[in-house]
Amino acid sequence: EIVLTQSPATLSLSPGERATLSCRASQSVRSYLAWYQQKPGQAPRLLIYDASNRATGIPARFSGSGSGTDYTLTISSLEPEDFAVYYCHQRSNWPWTFGQGTKVEIK
Amino acid sequence: QVHLVQSGAEVKKPGASVKVSCKASGYTFTDQYMNWVRQAPGQGLEWMGRINPKSGDTKYAQKFQGRVTMTRDMSISTAYMEVSGLTSDDTAVFYCVTNGATAIWGQGTLVTVSS
Asked: pLDDT of B57-84, one tens digit each?
């Protein structure tokens, strides 16, 4: 099973700042890597699929990059609604696996 | 527009079983695997398994093997996920999720296991 390790566990930032979230896989996931945002009481919301493609309706301030085992989600300028938990997810191999999450909180 | 609508919240006693449904619309139901993901309170996301709606073939995560059964009814574009032998550790929100790059998630079904 592919293990996804996210860092940091918590990111304390102010609105307007840049957020950089990392996801490292235990083996290559061939860019089959997605990023999700989740707020309390809501289902995860797809932000980025296949490493760098923004999902429909996702603002341009969200971008994804990476390949092989190392991936990054960048939020260029945090809006108040961006404070949430973010998960990376790989669909390269069964079983699907998810990172443990990064919480982006207001500083 | 692709849409997954899940059944409502359930409260079950330890040892009981629960069956959650997921009705698909906006696409051809048999064209995509359906996955199920569990999220315990305050915890992360955990893949449970998937079903091929066309063939009925299933693949389960090792952790859930023998306790989870995934089925489907093609006539009503609905997938089902049943968990038996519930314990308090099974208290969680269960999501159905389509396969593919732009996965669609159901709204989630909260299952509470309590005596």
From this structure: 999 999 999 999 999 999 999 999 999 9
